[in-house]
Design goal:
Elements (H helix, E strand, L loop, with lengths): L1 H19 L6 H11 L6 E14 L9 E2 L1 E13 L4 E16 L2 E17 L4 E17 L2 E2 L8 E13 L2 E10 L18 E12 L1
Antiparallel strand pairs: 1-3, 1-10, 2-4, 3-4, 4-5, 5-6, 6-7, 6-8, 8-9, 9-10
Length: 210
């Protein structure tokens, strides 16, 4: 976890430095560039949260039995740097609950998601988002009881894509996250397995920018 938070901190630092590029050598000019990168309808920072419609993808997902979608939530923060009127970069840090349901049981996986999105601003109020995402599993629970993380690949990576509409400081959007890493690492006996079973999640969210 320390490494993940270190990477996250460095990512935000590098993006902040990028927002300063193109300015002169003085502190005043650098401050102006930072504010320029964070100002306007296509930039800023804020909080967001919404509903998760989680599912399991992959050719071998039937190994889990007769499973169905799991509905939960996500919440976190975002920073959007405007590089032009059309293009922005938006890193986020989100606490996100994923998983699935089987019969009367709920299998829940709590993640820290860190997407870094390219934002294509079609207008001042409508944008398309696309980019990579890394995730770290924090907890695993079955019917509310915490289970051992040793059975799972706690690191996931994938892509996120969606669209967003903005009205004043409010942002309403929808996004799909597709994981590339296999969810399960070992079977119940502790033997290594390679199963095509991956996380997928549709998110609908509301954000407030500042």
């Amino acid at each position: 976890m320390k490494r993940l938070f270190t990477v996250l901190f460095m990512l935000f630092y590098i993006l902040a430095a990028k927002a300063q590029e193109g300015g002169g050598p003085t502190t005043q000019q650098q401050d102006h560039n930072i504010l320029s990168g964070l100002s306007g309808p296509n930039a800023g920072f804020g909080i967001k949260g919404g509903v998760n419609f989680a599912e399991i993808n992959g050719s071998e997902k039937d190994l889990l039995g007769d499973i169905s979608h799991y509905t939960s939530y996500h919440a976190g923060v975002f920073v959007q740097f405007a590089l032009s009127d059309f293009f922005s970069i938006q890193p986020e840090a989100l606490y996100s609950r994923k998983g699935y349901e089987r019969n009367d049981s709920t299998f829940r996986f709590d993640y820290l998601d860190v997407p870094v999105l390219a934002v294509f601003n079609l207008t001042d109020n409508i944008s398309i988002h696309l980019g990579p995402q890394i995730s770290s599993m924090l907890f695993a629970r079955e019917d509310g009881k915490e289970t051992n993380l040793d059975r799972f690949n706690t690191f996931d990576y994938g892509v996120a894509a969606g669209f967003e509409g903005r009205i004043s400081r409010f942002r309403l959007g929808s996004r799909y996250n597709l994981g590339f890493a296999d969810l399960i690492k070992t079977d119940k006996a502790g033997r290594s397995v390679t199963n095509d079973i991956k996380n997928g999640i549709l998110q609908v969210y509301l954000g407030i920018g500042f």
